[in-house]
């Protein structure tokens, strides 16, 4: 799915809405959260939420007994995964993927990274027959490098302390726990706007995918 980065949905900038949907994921969110995110009065946020419901991007969670709460729908999750970059030629996309797989090999061979890449899948417009494709949707399956849980946890904490020494700030314990995974993801993406990177667990269950790397098959 591709979106025009200059467009709006329900009066909201599409890229900011996409970012919001990515952060909330599949969790329920109160109308106050939407109001805070976009600096809106509750009445304006409620009107926007209703527009999102009408467009099929969100659903009212009143049926669960939580009035004023919403959840992103499958269509909304597709928007969360959407790309806003200029389309690539098929040849350019192939080159981008080749370089990405080279970085996968680097991660798997370098003991610095606390996670290895077990599998890489592509999905979205890259799997079509179109000569030009939107940003390449790539999903990776990460597994701990160290099978011993205690050693893995100790190495993760060491990596957090190293990051703090380099000036990185962590807002909460969850960010600390995810840092070692994020290090791998940042390296793999390499700031490429041509790649939209996810973990395989984030890909929609009914999405068509193609495995382009499988460590178990090597």
Fold blueprint:
Elements: E1 8-9, E2 12-13, H1 14-24, E3 29-30, H2 31-37, H3 42-54, E4 58-60, E5 69-72, H4 74-80, E6 88-89, H5 90-109, E7 115-123, E8 132-133, E9 136-144, H6 149-165, H7 173-189, E10 195-199, E11 209-214
Parallel strand pairs: 9-10
Antiparallel strand pairs: 1-2, 3-5, 4-5, 6-8, 7-9, 7-11
Structural class: alpha+beta
* Helical content band: 40-55%
Radius of gyration using CA atoms only: 19 Å
Mean of the pLDDT scores?
Answer: 90
Order of helices and strands: EEHEHHEEHEHEEEHHEE
What's the helix count?
7
Total count of domains: 2
Residue ranges: pLDDT <50 for 5 or more in a row? none
Count of beta strands: 11
Strand content: 15-25%
Order of adjacent strands in the largest pleated sheet = 10-9-7-11
Largest sheet: 4 strands, mixed
Taken from the alpha-carbon principal axes, the silhouette is globular
Report how far the terminal alpha carbons are from each other: 32 Å
How would you describe the oligomerization state of the chains in this entry?
single chain
């Amino acid at each position: 799915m591709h979106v025009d980065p200059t467009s709006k949905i329900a009066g909201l900038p599409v890229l900011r809405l996409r970012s919001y949907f990515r952060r909330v994921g599949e969790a329920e969110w109160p109308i106050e959260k939407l109001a805070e995110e976009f600096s809106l009065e509750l009445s304006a946020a409620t009107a926007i939420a209703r527009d999102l419901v009408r467009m099929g991007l969100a659903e009212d969670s009143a049926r669960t007994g939580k009035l004023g709460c919403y959840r992103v729908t499958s269509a909304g999750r597709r928007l969360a995964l959407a790309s806003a970059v200029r389309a690539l030629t098929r040849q350019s996309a192939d080159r981008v993927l080749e370089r990405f797989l080279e970085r996968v090999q680097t991660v798997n061979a370098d003991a610095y990274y606390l996670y290895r890449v077990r599998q890489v899948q592509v999905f979205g417009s890259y799997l079509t027959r179109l000569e030009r494709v939107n940003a390449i949707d790539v999903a990776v399956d990460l597994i701990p490098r160290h099978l011993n849980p205690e050693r893995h946890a100790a190495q993760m904490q060491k990596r957090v302390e190293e990051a703090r020494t380099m000036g990185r700030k962590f807002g909460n314990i969850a960010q600390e726990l995810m840092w070692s995974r994020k290090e791998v993801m940042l390296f793999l993406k390499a700031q490429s706007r041509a790649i939209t990177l996810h973990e395989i667990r984030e890909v929609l269950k009914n999405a068509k995918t193609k495995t382009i790397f499988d460590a178990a098959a090597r």
